[in-house]
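Researcher: We're teaching a course module on how sequence relates to structure. For the next exercise, students receive a sequence and then see the predicted structure as tokens, so they can try to spot secondary structure elements on their own. Here is the exercise chain.
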Amino acid sequence: MAKVLFFGSSHRVSRACLGILLAQKVELTGIVTASNPTRPDVLLENQPIPEGVQLTVATEPHRLASVVAAARNSDLVCSCFFDYPIREPILSGPRIGAVNLHPAYLPYNRGRHSAFWGIYRGTPLGATLHWMDDGLDTGPSIAQKEYTPDWLD
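Model: And here is the predicted structure for the students to work with:
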């Protein structure tokens, strides 16, 4: 069974990713969120936290020994709409690596508010699953899907 450390937010896509991981019965080594620190349970959307899984609220998780230890005890770090950069030593902790689902057609519109910047700049919109590295949304792509909005979007 794969061991995964999950980073997410209260965004519906992030909640869906966590739901998929829970349905696949991966072993979660931890859940980290920065969204709504007064209500971190919003990320779980009425899904119970699996027994023994630590829920951590952090904006600089690389500074927390418990999160770094969870990364080292994982096969994979999975980030989906996490609000802050994930840095070393978390990135080098898991056995396989760290992946991020980013709401942009990379290399366009790295960072936050990618849909706004794509529309403003007239660059392609979409989503990218990529390996994480020390840069911000700069790791090698695993899969991409371009999205062409219409005027109703």
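Model: If you want an answer key for the exercise: The first strand starts at residue 3 and ends at 8. The helical segments are 12-23, 65-72, 114-121.
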